[in-house]
Protein: small monomeric GTPase
Organism: Apteryx mantelli
Amino acid sequence: MGLRLPLRRSASFTPDHPALLEVPGPAALKMEANVLVMGADNVGKSALTVRFLTRRFIGEYGDMEFIYSHNLTVDGREILFHIWDVPCSQDQADQGSSEEKRIQWADSFVLVYSICDRASFNILPLKVQFIKAAKEGLSQEKVPIVIVGNKRDLHHQRVVSSEEGRLLALSLDCGFYEVSAAEAYHGALMVFHGLAERIPDTRLALKKGTRIRGIVKSMSAVFARKRTDSL
Ligand code: GDP
Ligand code: MG
């Protein structure tokens, strides 16, 4: 089976963190970037993505596969992120080639593990190597990658320390955040803000005028089921 092209969805919001998000001036640069959210199953990739897009945590995310579009202004640059939230691993044989195609599509990467799941942490060096081999090639430019330790709220089940996470990210030249998608929006915002800071202008495509349509209906339908906000 070839790469399934996911549905494209858009969401927009008005930032309320003035310390983090600058109001774009008339000369603000408008760019767009493709972000791939990767990691083992069940680590909270969808929870983190949905938290960033909507500020909400809904608990169960099913196996949706979307590319979401979302605006963020960082350091005077208005970036339209296209975020691909990869669903649970499907057909094993298909996995490698699909992942390669997704990596080619992306300009920047969010690699998520769970602090309660050692295996999800252990696979990261290989993932980073794979991404770097595919993206850096002969160029000396660094690939923007942020490593995220999720489920920080589950203290008693922690098996990966913050130091281990930080050291791994340092050794792989990646950004690092520990967050709880379940507990707060701020961590998710920091992740994408930090990622944006790592993307040089040369890696951003000029915006092609993609239309932002507001929160998607299908997402709203899911939220109607369960809401556990903790802003
Ligand atoms: P994915 O397979 O990586 O996309 O993982 P999901 O986003 O679907 O989350 C998997 C499970 O972990 C769900 O039951 C979520 O409710 C839960 N989850 C996600 N993030 C957190 C978190 O920060 N804390 C806790 N306690 N649970 C979380
Ligand atoms: Mg998911």
